[in-house]
Specification:
alpha/beta; 3 domains; 15 strands; RNA-binding
RNA sequence: GGCUAAGUGGCAGAGUGGUAAUGCAGCGGCCUGCAAAGCCGUCAACGCCGGUUCGAUUCCGACCUUAGCCUCCA
């Protein structure tokens, strides 16, 4: 089975071929840990997670790297604003992020590097770039020299002059060219800086990714897949290509994927608009697996407009699948290549979900489909929530149900309905089926 | 202004050179004390204008609209 990925580099869907047979390396830009994760962070992580799950099915060895940016102006700003020390902010947010991603059933990446653990690697990558004469030192900054890199714009398809036409590039006195970007900058903040050959300072934004990738896969290796939100294409990933090409002789990366952003009311989520939806807000109100499904409901490259309907839709689909799975307590699994094939088509999750719904429906008349349905749910990370139902709760529920049954037999429907409402308020869902009453905890 | 995408029923969202899945909502029915679930049936859409073609929603071009990027951003 061949995986096809839409490559931002070529703007085409291409067959994926790993640089080294049966070994795949993938890097996905993780969050800057300065504030609580939002739904956009979750979407990016989910796309990485789905590619990772798929690659693991297809290849023997898969390295999945997702970084944590714990050095950044925004973090320093947050610390100055709140008075909370930088390392406390980054630790707390990191914990929050990891915890929430795990609730959304994201697999742990193979590596989860942090900038603060990689300062030496970053310094040595910058030295390589300087040695290759692709950067210069100016006013205590190390600056990437865009004159040394002719392919700039290959990813974003932006022609050089357009960048200046926007007239929003602030010309800095230490830059020879407005397109040049900072690899290392001086730091006045005693709480955020490291000694370097260029004085006390800290890395620029872009260099960390390249440096951490190279430190894991090797400086002269080509990364197979690099992903992230499409708002990172320019300038972040463009700059990564520039520096990643200038610190080694190998090609930097073969395949680039970019996920669309999450819109709220058809507008980009942003703090200034005040429409940011936090992961914590929604996974407390809704089953995280439903949220996961909702995030998969549109193709990853499309913008995803987040509305109540997005969630309701996912809830309904989840219910259907779960109802079918509940029909059988077995946990036999069986490969389903038809399903895998849908995912191999550039991660076509809407199609895959459609397939699942149909499979769930068909399995009602054909129990032989259940092992495949289970396998497919596992593959995309749709797991059941396992509720710990205490003995007390179980007894209480069953006692109330038997009271209700008595009432029903006596045609005392007012009491029966009252008990059903009481159970509903305990999050217990009743169904009066042909073979008696069944109940479950609502997800 | 430049660049990149996208425009499908009430909503969400697939797909295709021969008029179009699926889910939700709606409507009608079966079932039910009622409900939920389930089942059956049903209504309804391819931005606009040209071109290519026997035939386009699907390919090509213009236009319009929307979103994103060009400044931190997943």
């Amino acid at each position: 089975m061949n995986l096809h990925i839409y490559n931002t580099l070529t703007n085409k869907k291409e067959q994926f071929l790993p640089h080294t047979e049966n070994k795949v390396s993938m890097y996905v830009c993780g969050p800057t840990v300065y504030s609580a994760p939002h739904i956009g962070n979750a979407r990016a992580a989910l796309v990485g997670d789905l590619f990772y799950r798929l690659l693991q099915k297809l290849y023997e060895e898969v390295i999945y790297i997702r970084n944590l940016t714990d050095v950044d102006d925004k973090i320093i700003l947050e610390s100055e604003k709140t008075g909370v020390p930088i390392n406390i902010i980054t630790q707390d947010v990191t914990k929050m992020y990891q915890n929430e991603m795990s609730k959304l059933n994201m697999l742990e990446p193979t590596f989860e590097p942090k900038v603060t653990d990689n300062i030496n690697n970053i310094i040595s990558t910058i030295e390589k770039i300087l040695n290759n004469k692709s950067a210069y030192i100016s006013e205590n900054h190390v600056v990437f020299d865009m004159d040394s890199f002719k392919d700039y714009g290959s990813l974003s398809k932006k022609v050089s002059d357009d960048l200046i036409d926007g007239a929003r590039v602030k010309p800095e006195t230490y830059k020879k060219n407005p397109k040049d970007f900072v690899l290392w900058k001086p730091s006045v903040n005693q709480n955020c800086g490291w000694d370097s050959p260029w004085g006390y300072g800290r890395p620029g934004w872009h260099i960390e990714c390249t440096s951490m990738i190279k430190s894991i896969i090797g400086n002269e290796q080509t990364l197979d897949i690099h992903g992230g939100g499409n708002d990172l294409i320019f300038p972040h990933h463009e700059n990564e290509i520039a520096q990643g090409t200038s610190c080694a002789s190998a090609k930097y990366c073969n395949y680039w994927f970019h996920n669309g952003i999450v819109l709220v009311d058809k507008k980009k989520m942003s703090k200034s608009l005040g429409n940011v939806i936090l992961v914590s807000d929604i996974i407390n109100a809704t089953n995280p697996i439903v949220i996961r499904l909702a995030l998969m409901s549109s193709h990853y490259r499309q913008p995803l407009n987040w509305t109540n309907d997005t969630v309701n839709n996912a809830k309904n689909i989840y219910e259907k699948i779960v109802t079918s799975l509940d029909a059988d307590s077995s946990d036999v699994r069986e490969d389903d290549n038809d399903f895998l094939e849908l995912l191999c088509d550039d991660l076509n999750t809407p199609n895959a979900i459609q397939y699942l719904v149909k499979q769930a429906k068909d399995s009602k008349n054909n129990k032989n489909l259940l092992p495949k349905l289970r396998y497919n749910c596992d593959l995309i990370g749709l797991k059941r929530n396992s509720y710990k139902i205490s003995v007390e709760l179980k007894n209480k529920v069953e006692h109330l149900i038997s009271q209700r049954e008595t009432a029903r037999q006596n045609k005392d429907y007012a009491s029966a309905d009252q008990i059903r409402n009481m159970l509903a308020s305990m999050n217990v869902d009743l169904k009066d089926g042909p073979s008696g009453v069944t109940w479950k905890i609502k997800d």
